Amino acid sequence: MTAPDLTESSARKALLRLEGILNKIFGNDLNPLYYLGALGFCFFWVLVVSGVYLYGFYRTGIELSYPSVEYITNEQWYLGGVMRSLHRYAADALVVVMVLHLLREFILGRYRGARWFSWVTGIPLIWLIYTSGINGYWMPWDKLAQYATVATMEWLDWLPIFSGPLSQSFISQEVLNDRFFSLISFSHATIPLFVLFFLWIHILRISYPVVNPRRKLVVGVLLAMLVLALVKPALSQGPADMGIEPRNIGIDWFYLFIYPLLDVWSAGQVWALVIGISLLLGVLPWLPSRFKQIPVAEVNLKYCSGCGFCVADCPYEAVVMKPRSDGMHFTEEAVVVPDRCVSCGICAGSCPSSTPFRSEANYVSGIEMPSLPISGLRAAMMNDLAKLTGDARVMVFGCDNAADIGKLRSAGVAVMSLPCTAMLPPSFIEYALREHQVDGVFITGCRESDCYHRMGGLWTEQRLAAKREPRLRGRTEHGRIRQFWASSADFRGLTQELESFRATLRDQAE
Ligand code: HEM
Ligand code: SF4
Ligand code: SF4
Q1: Does 258 reside within a domain?
Q2: Do both 335 and 265 map to the same domain?
Q3: N or C: which end of the chain has fewer CB within 10 A?
């Protein structure tokens, strides 16, 4: 079996087109598709806050649960009712962003190599969130709860782990006891703790994880849910009665879609489906694919001063500082953790020794990508620059995951595509502008707020604005540098921007 390679597939193109439209509506900073994981956290916290409030008034017991939820909903509609609706809608929204997040990472191919860790730890989150959500639907003990409880027990009965049929325990009102309500109430409060624990593990290998969406996005999302809560409040569907089979009930398709499926398929088939999907997701990162990760970063101790810039810039916690092992007078040295490295090259761009202003032809940097050594980049750049002719000669640096800059190459334009734009040490820009008389340097890469390797676009902007090490030196003529962020769906805009930059350079030359 082969993992589908969607790198430049129609799914990826469609995703980029959709994100482009949302960027126009909301701006890159507030594009919800760039903040799906962070929105997941946001909805989780809304669930916690509203859930704590609801627990304050919820009563556990066959005769108590339904009236207590009715009290919250109707007597306290202005607060309790709103909290109940927020709880319901945040739960639905959590599933929506989780599924979109999974699909997006899949379409972008961000589940292979070192990223397997975040991918695989996402799978228990799906199970936990669904378990908690379904459990939540039992709590009001209305007709929907009755339907969902009985259907779940019948489904669980298929598993050979319970001694007697569980569904038998729920067939009559008499055998249902208060212990059952204490149990569901306890589990509904406990499972979210496991969700939180797995969320922590999920982002353990990610530096600077984005767990909070932009404030405006949070406000917008909360307002939308509040309006929904007032316009269409979450209501119960009449008290449960085990003597009467519930009919014509409305179900929440985000959580309970599995139950109508149980009407058509056998319990065993539905188990096979959900376990099968989970196993498939679990093995996906290791299925053979055309994706080839270039060799991971390597430290060359002789040129490492232990400055820690690479540790600060690595987006995947893949470089750590350790006590010096080679007797040099520095206290620490950089060490790459190969299992965590996604081969983005950002560390090579952050190392002060990755400068082209060095005399040896085959010099080495403190940290390098073995397949793309910094001295090789310099040689390739010099070779390309030497061939440029005409006026407004430009060196374009870009990213393998963004717009294909190879198509920009012309007599006056040289191009160099890197695994990530942030692999470019700013000193290369100075070098190209000063030593080799190129008229301008054009920097491009993934769309703003959407770096494929995370952080690369931001680090590049900060280095060029002299706000982050290694800085672009103040003497560099900023008028001869242009940044423009573009995905493969923005190629026309990229070409126009490059032409406008070259026109400016021509004007400056006159
Ligand atoms: C509601 C549950 C989930 C939440 C709240 C969540 C949240 C997050 C967050 C905050 C990040 C870091 C994003 C960043 O800073 O770039 C992340 C990364 C990631 N998530 Fe999730 N996640 C959830 C479920 C899942 C699931 C179900 C999967 C797939 C099975 C998944 C796959 C991934 C992957 C592969 C990454 C790493 C992306 C990269 O390396 O750039 N997540 N998640
Ligand atoms: S290439 Fe460097 S920056 Fe990128 S993940 Fe590996 S160690 Fe980190
Ligand atoms: S950036 Fe370079 S010099 Fe600094 S710690 Fe990393 S490898 Fe060593």
Answers
A1: yes
A2: no
A3: C
The string over 373-411, giving b where at least 16 C-beta atoms fall within 10 Å of a residue's C-beta and e elsewhere, is: bbbebbeebeebbeebeeebbbbbbbbbbbbebeebeee
Q: Which ligand is nearest to the CA of 422?
A: 2
Range 212-236 average pLDDT:
97
What is the distance in angstroms between the CA of the first residue and the CA of the last residue of the chain?
61
Residue 335, SS3 per DSSP: strand
pLDDT at 446 over 80: yes
Residue 458, classified by CB atoms within 10 Å of its CB into exposed (0-12), middle (13-18) or buried (19+), is middle
How does DSSP classify residue 130?
Answer: H
Tell me which ligand sits closest to the C-alpha of residue 455.
1
If you compute the radius of gyration of the chain from its CA atoms, what whole number of angstroms results? Answer: 28
> Residues 6 or more apart from 190 whose CB is under 8 A from it?
none
Query: Is residue 353 within 6 Å of ligand 1 at its C-beta?
Result: no
125 located within any domain:
yes
| Phi, psi (deg, nearest 5) at residue 267 | -55, -40
- Spatial distance between the Cα atoms of 368 and 382, rounded to a whole number of angstroms: 19
- Structural domain count, the chain: 2
Question: What letters, b where the CB count within 10 A reaches 16 and e where it falls short, cover 98-118?
Answer: beebbebbbbbbbbbbbbbbb
With a 6 A CB cut-off, is 47 part of the ligand 1 pocket? no
Q: Mapping DSSP to helix (H, G, I), strand (E, B) and coil, where does residue 237 land?
A: coil
Query: Does residue 263 register a pLDDT over 50?
Result: yes
Considering only CA atoms, which of 311, 308, 306, 309 is closest in space to residue 327? 306
* Residue 434: domain span: 298-509
Q: What are phi and psi of 319, to 5 degrees?
A: -120, 135
In a domain, 4, yes or no: no
pTM confidence score = 0.94
d(CA 484, CA 493): 9
* Atom 26, ligand 1: residue with shortest CA distance: 122
Q: Which residue puts its alpha carbon closest to atom 6 of ligand 3? A: 310
Q: For residues 304 and 332, state if they share a domain.
A: yes
Question: With 50 as the cut, is the pLDDT of residue 3 above it?
Answer: no
Q: What is the CA(206)–ligand 3 centre distance, in A? A: 20
**Mean pLDDT computed over 158-165:** 72
For residues 331-367, one letter each, b for 16 or more C-beta atoms within 10 angstroms of the residue's C-beta and e for the rest, the string is: ebbbebbeebbbbbbbbbbbbbbbbbebeeeebbbbb
For CA atoms 370, 374, 379, 384, give the dihedral sign: positive
